[in-house]
Amino acid sequence: MSSEKVIAIAGNPNVGKSTVFNSLTNMHQHTGNWPGKTVANAVGYCSTREYSYQLVDIPGTYSLMAHSAEEEVARDFICFGDAQAVVIVCDATCLERNLNLVIQTMEITDRVIVCINLMDEAEKKGIHVRLDVLSSELGVPVVGMIARDKKGLDELLKELDQMMHEIDGEVRAADVESLECKRNQSFQVIYPNVLEEAISILEPAVGETLGRLNSRWLALKLLDYDDTLGEQVKNYFGKDICSIPSVKECLDRARKKLTDAGLDQTYLEEEIVSSVMQTAEKISSKAVVCTKKRPDLKDRKIDQILTGRVLGYPIMAILLMGILWLTIVGANYPSQMLSKLFFQIQNQLTRFFQYMGAPPWLHGMLVLGIYRVLAWVISVMLPPMAIFFPLFTLLEDAGYLPRIAYNLDKPFKKCCACGKQALTMAMGFGCNAVGVTGCRIIDSPRERLIAILTNCFVPCNGRFPTLIAIITMFFIGTQSGGISSLLSAFILTLVILLGIGMTFLVSWALSKTVLKGVPSSFTLELPPYRRPQIGKVIVRSVFDRTLFVLGRAVMAAAPAGLIIWAAANIFIGNQSLLNYCAAMLDPAAKLFGLDGVILIAFILGLPANEIVIPIIIMAYMSQGSIMELGNLSEMKLLFVNHGWTWVTAACTMLFSLMHWPCSTTLLTIKKETGSWRWTAAALVIPTVAGLLLCFGVAQTARIVMGG
Known about the structure:
Layout: E1 5-11, H1 17-25, E2 42-47, E3 52-57, H2 69-80, E4 85-91, H3 95-108, E5 112-117, H4 119-124, E6 127-129, H5 131-138, E7 142-144, H6 153-168, H7 173-182, H8 193-209, H9 215-223, H10 227-237, H11 245-260, H12 265-287, E8 288-290, H13 297-306, H14 312-356, H15 360-398, H16 401-414, H17 421-428, H18 432-438, H19 445-454, H20 464-476, H21 482-512, H22 534-569, E9 571-572, E10 575-576, H23 577-591, H24 596-604, H25 612-620, H26 632-641, H27 646-657, H28 663-673, H29 676-705
Parallel strand pairs: 1-3, 1-4, 4-5, 5-7
Antiparallel strand pairs: 2-3, 6-8, 9-10
């Protein structure tokens, strides 16, 4: 048996590429409905009777022109990843567009297998793909597939085995005829005459120097001024190809020929793209037969409503409120159950420490400090995430998330930012650190930095409990019921819309000052509406999002619990260090409608936003550990007795919405930007905005209320 074969799985976004990958490897990688969602390469393994395969799920991309990070990653892996073959997954419902990537890949390598996925959806829309014609035109194997139902996987593996036989020189006599009929053509895009002449000048010199790569394609990319490829070639082969005398001489001659013909860098790329698209159109016209005039008419009618000027934004707000309402209603009871369970476990731990004769300080640090903070974070954070993430993922799986980006593209453009920021902002609702990481899908460094600096203006899952509790106690009433929960969701939606508004405002301010620039354009596909896979969505969201985010919060909350317990149990005179610091901050905090305890709670809540309310309770009750209150009515009474009014509640909500990111997000920003300066800016910008807003509300309330 041959050694393990490396196979790249490529394709446009939203074609089922990762579904094919998961089906072959039995792995459950997260898939997204937007360009560049899979920025890193996922790896899995599968085997047949004859070969063992290492499958690499490279980023979803529309081309290999290296205009974005995902295009560079995909191109570089195909060129330098030592893959024996490339499997390209295409969408049968829009084959012509998908063929652009197929053609560009085949210019690099002829070891390609084309998978035409979503054949069932194409049939429903009256689209018939003639696989034999497509295979004949391309000169490579073509497999029809319905990846969701795992139809076509066996044929794909069979084609892979046959291709590996050919590569290894082990082609059986019975396979020769079938392989020859599929791979008897040397596929080539025909470019304009002057470009073909330039390629013919440069190609021989390139071929002599770097025989490992396709010399025609490499010559084309050198003529196209692809500097990023030149760097990768230098890193891979250890030499700068353009500095080799023979290549440099031929390159200068070829470029002069193009310049004399009026093909500068801009027009040259247009000619290359145009030639590829014309080739794709020609092949598609032969291989695709449509029996319906407008197979996507139903989707277009839905889009007229969901992306329309009149109803697009209200529907977005209503859906957001619906998700928040379901989260609020659904999370209450599980949170109470988990809280009771964890405090019962705490009682058992306390008995164990007493039985072992442990000193009180050790019990305090481990149980009343670390464990109790962890218990609070998990009981408060887990249920909302377990509801919010699957609901949000269902919208993504159904194809609605790209419509949100489409709707918000125009407002972001007016702010001189990128429309993709709508997607990273949406990711921030679950976790701002995840939203910051998601900013990699934005190609422009300037616009990516704007998105990173403004991502925490939308509340993450850790801030929802604080917002919901304050809304319920001071603006709705602590009684339970459908109407009160609906009003809570409505007010919370308004708070979130305020955060989105601040995102627009700060993005605009940054783009007009320290990050000046013109907004870039980008390609955003509106995928067809699909019935969500509810079971897979739940499993995927629980493991890929809920437990991942919860794990990071727990890692941050554990040391925070120790620090909080120490601050509450180290005394200066008759006051704990916690209350002493709160008293020092109290005069300044009053200016912003807060008090010292609230401000110190936010400071100590830097590792995890979920522990802000517990710290406030602990400080007010003058206890050395976080206490459990029976219900929100008791909590409201405690807060009112310590001077809270509706102004305090409003300012606390505003500061919770807009203040420094948590420590996990700040570390992620440092990793993504590589700069402590921009990390500090990400801390200062929302904090200053929140303090200014709180100051305005507090002072206005004092003037209106006469004091």
